[in-house]
Structure formats: C-alpha cells, structure tokens
Amino acid sequence: MRIPSAIRRLWNDDVTAPGLVYAPVTKADTDLPGGVCRALLVGTAGTANLMQSDGTTRADVPLQQGMNALVCKQVRTGGTAADIWAIY
3 to each of 6, 38, 56, how far by Cα in Å? Predict the structure, then answer.
C-alpha cells in the first residue's frame, strides 16, 4: 500500500506516517488478509503467537495494551492478548 503524497510530506517517510487502514484480527494460522502489517493495536494486554515477515514464528510474544510496533505476517492461534487490530 502506498502512502498518499500529502501524508508523506507531513511525516517524510512511510515508517513514521500514521496507519491508513486498520482491521480487526482473527487469530488463525494463516496470513493476515491485508498482508504484512506495520503494527498491532491491542485492547487487552497478554501474549500472542506471531509470524514475522520473514516467516519466523515466535511464541508467547508479550503485547502491551495499545500500540505495538511489530511488523507481522500472522497472528496465530493461542496466546492471551485480545481485541487485536492490524495497522497497515
């Protein structure tokens, strides 16, 4: 997804620009429907089983309530974190 030029001018690059799309996550052992996300917004802190963009799976990753700057490909089943949103 490309960042519109008006937003890019404000933040100078894609890394610091705000998320343009956010979608609720259903924990599953499949890729996120929107592709690799730029961060996770979490309503209830806990742990999650995540797949990194390179395919590495990490179990019991601690997630805080609020924004977690973790690029990931999958939010896999298991873990205690809830109300998770993918930010693109």
Answer: 8, 13, 27
Instruction: State the DSSP string of 3-65.
Output: PPHHHHHHHSSTTTSPPS-EEEPPP-SS--TT-SBSEEEEEE-EEEEEE-TTS-EEEEEEE-S
pLDDT tens-digit readout, 16-58: 677 889 999 999 999 999 999 999 999 999 999 999 999 999 9
Let me know: does 39 contact 85? Beta carbons within 8 Å: no
- pLDDT higher than 80, residue 12: no
Q: What global pTM score does this model have?
A: 0.83
- Per DSSP, the three-state class of 79 is coil
Phi, psi of 58 (to 5 degrees): -120, 130
